[in-house]
Structures are given as C-alpha cells and as structure tokens.
C-alpha cells in the first residue's frame, strides 16, 4: 500500500512532464523561451558585475521599462490583427509636447494638460484606423505617414528652443519619481496579484468543467499560484530594500492586467483574436472588421501617448523627437520578443512586459559593464531575430499538425 502510494506522485510528475514535452513539440512553447532567456541574461550579467542584482539597479530597471513598455502594450493590440504601427514613437513625442506646451507655456493645470495629451494620442490612433479601415490603405503606409507628420508637428510645437523643461515636483514628474515607502504597499501588491490569479484560474476551471471542456486540475493551479507568489514577493522584498514600490510600476502593472482582461475575458478581445486568425473568417463570423481595426489603432495611440508622458517624466523635459525611430523599434521588438506573433492571432499584454524586461536588462547590464550602446543594439537585434525565427518555426509546426 505504501509503495503504491509513493509511486502515484511520481506517475503524476511523469505525466505532467510528458504533456509539457508534447506541447513543446507541437510548437506551443508559450513564454518559456523568453523566461529562460531572461534568467540566462540575469545570470550572465550578475556573474560579470555583482551590482546587477542590487536593489537600486533592479528598482531603476522596474521604472525604466514602464515608458516603452506601455507603448509596447499598445503594439500588441495591433500585432494581434497581423498589422504594424510605425507611428507610436512620433505619437508619444507629440503627446509629451502637447502636455508641455499646454502646461508650461499656456499655464493649464497639469491634470487637464495630461488628459488632453492622452486624448490627442487616442484621436491620432483613431485617425490612422479610419484611413486603414475605410479606404483600405495598408496600416504600414498610414502609420509611416503618421511617423513623419507627427514628428513635424512636434518640432513645430516645441518652437525654436526645441526643449521644454517640466516642473520636477509636478504631477508628471512624480509618475516616475514617487515611491510608496511603506513596505506593506509592495507586499500588498504581490499578495493581491497572486490572489487575483488564483481566483481567476479557479473561475476559468469551473466554467470549463461546466462546459465539458478540458480544464486544469486544482493541484496545477496551486503550483502556478505558488510560483507567481514566490516571484512577486521576491520582487517586493528587493524593491523594499531600496525606496519601496515605485508608482510607475504600480500603474504599469494595473494597466497591463486590465488590458489583459479586456483581451482575454471580453467579447471585444475575442473579436481581436478572431480578426488576427483571418479577415474573411472573422467577417463571416459576424465580426465588424472595420470597427475592430479602428479600435486597436486607437488603443495603440492612447498607450503611445501614455508612454510618452512617462518617458518625459523620467527626464523631466520634452525635447526634439530624434530618438522616436529607436523607440518604435524597441517597442515592436519588446512585443515580439515577449511572444506576440508577427502573423497575428497570438499574444498577450504580458508579452510586452517580458520583452521589455529582456531589452532593458540588456541595456542595464551593458551600462554596468561600461560597454558602448552599439553592442547593445546588436545583441537586441539578435534576440529579436531569434524570437521571430522561433515564432515562424512554431507556426509551421502547428500548421503541419492542423492546429493553426
């Protein structure tokens, strides 16, 4: 009896490993490659410089990912329908310029200038979507035109000086400079995240079970929750060793989680994924294709505006958009490296977070090692190419098995 009982857990582990290997062999690797790559990157940089895992560096890393990360989250929506938005760098710069002009030059209250700047980004995204959906102009061309036009408008708004300094004690500046020093804030966020994941997983399990669909056993849900809780509480511990929970990180996590729910738990999200799976099939299924196209580009413009404000907050100034090209490339790279497919129909908002962690970890590690930025671009490009190759191989493997 004892021997039989002792072998039961072993059989379950063997069965779970077998199922995991089967999913990997069918091209369903999920986020595993990028997580393993991130762990490898961190191990290498920590081995080369012991300050990489210091609380100060990791806290700064958690804030540095927010600006471009928000833009990358918007890019995820566009990639899910198999399109691309090249204008996000220019839109982010324009939104920051709109805020600076209204607040600093015109004396408008910060909160009102911020709202107008974000609405400007949303309006620009909707305009791109209108030309794309109504006239059939490829999104690539529409947003490329936007990249040029909004760059020019930004330069015009900034005027001769080309730079507007922000109030370093103002609302926007505090987006990236404010920290919750009470240790309960970071630990509370970690506990809340783990609890929300557990409750959502249990709810999904009940729904699938009631519909006679495959569902995860409670043991697996508990293990996943435990892993998430361990990572979250470790991160909270590290943040509390420096200045506490950054406001920027809190806003970022809340927005990413809310948009993830929008994509994965609502009819709207199902329409976005359906459109990414095929335009004609989505149209026959009753999806309003034009409306979805306009909406995803609106989301992209809105997130670009928010990201631009966070980037301006980090340096407390708004300058000429000379780096908007690098910004859009980093945002797209973050979404793709994190696991969003360039072919549409596959990805999550958390992909942007993972991809941004990879890119910013490379940047942070290179800075600690005093290595020139040229090598950083080369390494990031190599990681991006590897992610796209993996996506292509995964898609080909699924097609060969009739799963894509």
UniProtKB/TrEMBL annotation:
Membrane topology: Multi-pass membrane protein
GO cellular component assignments: plasma membrane
Transmembrane domains' residue ranges: 31-49, 61-81, 111-132, 139-158, 178-200, 221-239, 245-263, 290-312, 324-343, 350-369, 375-393
Keywords: Cell inner membrane, Cell membrane, Membrane, Sugar transport, Transmembrane, Transmembrane helix, Transport
InterPro entries reported for this sequence: ABC_transp_permease
CDD domains: TM_PBP1_transp_AraH_like
A Pfam family per the record: BPD_transp_2
Localisation: Cell membrane
Known role: Part of the binding-protein-dependent transport system for D-xylose. Probably responsible for the translocation of the substrate across the membrane.
PANTHER family reported for this sequence: ABC TRANSPORTER PERMEASE PROTEIN YPHD-RELATED-RELATED (PTHR32196), XYLOSE TRANSPORT SYSTEM PERMEASE PROTEIN XYLH (PTHR32196:SF32)
Name listed for the protein in its UniProt record: Xylose transport system permease protein XylH
Source organism of this protein record: Streptomyces sparsogenes DSM 40356
